Amino acid sequence: MSEELTYEQVVEQVSDYVLGDLEPEEMMEMDAYFQKQRTLLALLRETEETLAQFAHSAPDVPLPRDAKERLMMRVHADQKQGARRAMSRLHLTTKTVWQMGAAAAAILLMALSFYTSQLQGQVAQLQLERDMLQRVRQEQLRVLAGARQAVILPGTEAAPAAYGTFYRNGQEALILFEGLAALPDDQSYQLWLIPAEGDPVPAGLLTVKEGAPGVQTISIPVGAQDFAAVGVSVEPAGGSPAPTGPIVLLGKSG
Amino acid sequence: MSYTHYSDEELLQLIIERDDKALETLYHRHAQVVYNLIARIVQEPTLADEVLQDTFWQLWTKAEAYRGDGTVTAWLYRIARNKSLDQLRRQQARPQPAYAATQEAEEALWTTISTPDGEVERIAERRWERQQVRQALGTIPDEQRLCLELAYFEGMSQNQIALHTNTPLGTIKTRMRMGLQKLRHILHAVSQ
Questions:
Q1: CATH number (domain holding residue B68)
Q2: What chain A residue is nearest to B75 in terms of C-alpha separation?
Q3: pLDDT at residue A27 in the model
Q4: Is A71 within 8 Å of B53 when comparing Cβ atoms?
Q5: Does the CB of A41 have a partner CB in chain B at under 8 Å?
Q6: Is the pLDDT of residue A26 over 90?
Q7: Is B4 a domain residue?
Q8: Complex ipTM value
Q9: For B68, which residue in chain A has the nearest alpha carbon?
Q10: Which residues of A touch B11 (CB under 8 A)?
Q11: In 3-state terms, what secondary structure has residue B59?
Q12: Which of B45, B109, B151 sits opposite A19 (nearest CB)?
């Protein structure tokens, strides 16, 4: 369809739209029309409801006997996992930096444990990598132990399952994060320190492994000593001079 | 605590808050029709079982995707249908139908479904709705009903239906539109 749709055409094609029997371009044109003509939404909903009724015309088939039990078992396992995540969050929201530091240390240890477990099976490199991790860990724990400022970073709408904490220790900082999805090769997560006035200052790229908690140390950039907020956004690989992509973590400095 | 007084929409809100009892209640209410729909489309018990699990798992993990601009049942059936059609398209060769429902089997089924207290009325209500839908479908001319069923259960496009039934595309479009319009009007009338 190259010409603009008419009201009659849209009405005629509502069932095609609901059944998914239109080309993507046509679906988009219909979407746009529904946004312009809100009165047609009622017809759209009614058509959807009518088509849904066809489910009732399917013949009855006995449900698999243990289908519900298997579903609920999976649900309960998910709840337990969620409870563990909630516990971690609870620790992170305690008020003092030291308390947050303790919780963060636990996450840090989890992260390091995860990294360590990844090394299993690579016996030849194990010692080298373990030594390296030990050094990184000591470095991270040093920054964390000396932190006097913490910024909680809740996930935004773009990444509601993500969260993190940013700890500042003088000119160094440590960021812990969890729940960020792995990005395609042409994108990176970039950390920003945001002053009360002026543009966000880039503060480095984050390395994210899907499903694993992450931890990184950074140096506070010269132009961002008095930042008012901390954010993480999705940017083209290698980072951007200014944020361009969706913000996934954002928190105000207390 | 009984959840039977909650509407589907309220149960969905509770699911967003990770309430497993709410999911269980919705399962009791809708699993049978959802499974019938899935089984009708995929025609294979093991695959139907997988799609059923996937459908309710999506309800558990993505309940917030429900935008509230239609009924929960329409949304749920749409998820089940889309997943079933995806599964159907993945199948290389369509096996013969493995299910043969009879009136007796159906009666036995409805009397043996285990339901929590208070849900029996809702199940009966849905059965009544189902009978109305079937009656309404019975009033639609066969050629119109066939077009709609091929589109809904087989995922066929109008072009495919035209080829399948050796009928001009324009005729198929008209049949579907008229069949759907008639069904909508009948269902609207019986729900008054």
A1: 1.10.1740.10
A2: A52
A3: 85
A4: yes
A5: yes
A6: no
A7: yes
A8: 0.80
A9: A45
A10: none
A11: helix
A12: B151
Chain A residues closer than 8 Å to B18 by CB: 79, 82
Q: Is A31 on the interface with B (CB under 8 A)?
A: no
- Pair (B152, B93) in one structural domain: no
**B80 and B146 housed in the same domain:** no
Give the mutation candidate from B8, B25, B40, B149 for the A interface (greatest A CB count, under 10 A).
Answer: B40
Nearest CA in chain B to A76: B20
Q: Which chain A residues are within 8 Å of B20, Cβ to Cβ? A: 72, 75-76, 79
Written as tens digits, the pLDDT of chain B (192 aa) is 678 889 999 999 999 999 999 999 999 999 999 999 999 999 888 899 999 999 999 999 999 999 887 889 999 999 999 999 988 888 755 544 444 444 444 444 444 444 555 556 666 666 677 777 777 787 888 898 899 989 999 888 889 999 999 999 999 988 888 888 888 777 766 655
Q: Chain B contacts of A19, Cβ < 8 Å?
A: 151-152
Say whether B187 and A50 touch across the interface (CB within 8 A): yes
Report pLDDT digits (tens) over A76-112.
988 888 777 666 655 555 455 566 666 677 777 776 6
Same domain, A140 and A175: no
